[in-house]
Design brief:
binds flavin-adenine dinucleotide; binds FE2/S2 (inorganic) cluster; 270 residues; 28% strand; three-stranded antiparallel sheet
Length: 270
């Protein structure tokens, strides 16, 4: 993979049998660990495995990144959330920002299997952060790669080829955008004038993942929704992006403190 991004394959037969594109699991490393949601990147009902791809951003993802082949975690709960709506729409554009190539893969594959023409746009800050290009190409009729710094593919942001596709001769029937919130927001802003339905996968802070704590509250079309049970997929044109960004920042001091404390403890014991 690429620095700070890991792919783990868990043996979780019951979840693997049920998981559908767009769903997620809640991971708990040990009895004192926090619960973090991670999207199912792949599931194999035959061998009972479930694949997740995650980026190290704080305490729990760094701790998870230290696990070795053969290790186990305390709990893996899922599949959670509503699956992505998959049907024959016509031409579907799948846009993935950064490590979101992993969550977009099962969606692009399912869209292709449903008979859609799939055009994928894969963007990253730099070439060294790109992965699964061939995998995404294998489930797409066309793949456009962009890097912010121009080290690979086309230089620029994913919204540029997205806009060109919308302006082009081919009718685009649906856009799915997954990645950092700011990237999903600007994909939705790009498609809005063209009135092309744009589905985004929201990533608010989640705790239980089953609709009980209210932590993942988002506002969509002026209505309060819980991303874990009403989503995580929503109509990107209806999302209150400012509220999402503000709520994602709620625990920044605590997250920083938890990471520093854990790093300090980890150094003492290693
Ligand atoms: C439905 C869903 C699917 C996700 N899928 C993936 C995935 O496939 N791969 C991946 O790398 N990341 C994914 N994330 C984000 C991932 O859950 C966070 O990166 C992780 O929880 C960070 O935990 P931490 O302790 O390492 O970092 P922290 O330092 O605790 O937090 C860093 C940032 O991560 C976010 N975050 C923290 N805790 C949570 C939480 N409990 N729930 C959601 N976000 C949180 C906050 O924005 C926070 O500022 C997903 C989030 C959601 C909601
Ligand atoms: S995570 Fe608790 S209600 Fe959604």
């Amino acid at each position: 993979m690429v620095p700070n991004i890991h792919l783990f394959r868990f043996s979780a037969p019951k979840i693997a049998r049920k998981a559908k594109a767009g769903q997620f699991v809640v991971v708990m490393i040990d009895e004192k660990g926090e619960r973090i949601p991670l999207t199912v990147a792949d599931s194999n009902a035959k061998d009972g495995t479930l694949t997740i791809v995650f980026m190290e951003v704080g305490k729990t993802t760094q701790q998870l990144g230290l696990l070795q082949e053969g290790d186990s975690i305390m709990s893996l709960t899922g599949p959670l959330g509503l699956p992505t709506e998959v049907e024959k729409f016509g031409t579907v554009v799948c846009v993935a920002g950064g490590f979101a190539v992993a969550p977009i893969m099962p969606i692009a594959r399912a869209m292709k299997q449903a008979g859609n023409k799939v055009i994928s746009i894969l963007g990253a800050r730099s070439k060294s952060l790109l992965f699964w290009e061939d995998e995404l190409r294998s489930v797409s009729d066309k793949l456009i790669v962009t890097t912010d710094d121009g080290t690979y593919g086309r230089k620029g942001l994913v919204t540029e080829p997205l806009k060109e596709l919308l302006e082009g001769p081919e009718k685009i029937d649906r856009v799915i955008a997954i990645g950092p919130s700011v990237m999903m927001k600007f994909c939705a802003k790009t498609t809005e004038p063209f009135k092309v339905k744009t589905i985004v996968s929201l990533n608010p802070i989640m705790v239980d993942g089953t609709g009980m704590c209210g932590c993942c509250r988002v506002s969509v079309g002026g209505q309060t929704k819980f991303a874990c049970v009403d989503g995580p997929d929503f109509d990107g044109h209806q999302v209150d992006w400012d509220l999402l960004a503000a709520r994602q920042r709620t625990y920044l001091p605590e997250e920083k403190q938890a990471l520093e404390h854990w790093q300090c403890q980890h150094e003492k014991h290693s």
